[in-house]
Amino acid sequence: xxxxxxxxxxxxxxxxxxxxxxxxxxxxxxxxxxxxxxxxxxxxxxxxxxxxxxxxxxxxxxxxxxxxxxxxxxxxxxxxxxxxxxxxxxxxxxxxxxxxxxxxxxxxxxxxxxxxxxxxxxxxxxxxxxxxxxxxxxxxxxxxxxxxxxxxxxxxxxxxxxxxxxxxxxxxxxxxxxxxxxxxxxxxxxxxxxxxxxxxxxxxxxxxxxxxxxxxxxxxxxxxxxxxxxxxxxxxxxxxxxxxxxxxxxxxxxxxxxxxxxxxxxxxxxxxxxxxxxxxxxxxxxxxxxxxxxxxxxxxxxxxxxxxxxxxxxxxxxxxx
Length: 321
Description:
Oligomer: single chain
Number of helices: 9
Distance between the termini: 13 Å
Shape: elongated
Radius of gyration: 23 Å
Low-confidence stretches: none
């Protein structure tokens, strides 16, 4: 049975929710484990004790820092991203056709008209940002704007509008902050182990703290592997969201071929995009950092890829035809 955009959206939302839930559990568990290692030791009677109050406090502090960073990203991330990308806001008189296309899509999606930005570069790409449809913006490069037909332009803008409509930017921001917090927490723990490792090792060997030594080894392994696992989860979520936005674009335009043709054009362009880096790459319709090395006919995908292979995306879109 061929997938429709309804079943595709439902499946990707379900998979994304599962990934987010697992990430939250993993993040809290890591904080508790590190807090347990820091707060454990022998009491006056020589028995090994775990200070659970301290462990929970560390997990709560880590969660509070992540929450504050998320708020800062929500309310200040838009202006930073636009500045880094070199995008400038335009008015309807600057590009009436582009505004008309986006106005049609906003009406079809039942959401407010986003702000529109243009990046003055010959590279071909686009992205959306905004914590919700009421605070959304879409940006397109001058190179892409000049080389797309109206149907292709409609497909690309529908894809970006779908990111906003599905609250993908909110998910992406949350995931980016969580990955950053996992890296930061792991780095702090590893550095504390390096500075205090010699003293703790001698103390544990003298007091026979085998249980604490085992916990420390487990925590060290997780602290090393956590950033890698967190990045894998983030990239998996990013790929799911691209499929979802593609399906959402079909829902709005009823024309999969427009987006298929646009994806083929963008993936064949090797012009470097100024300002693009690995931190902002997941925001674009096609990864601007890896686009030049991407083979349009290659369906292989790495667990560290921010986007699904273009050929896989086009194959799914044509199934919706």
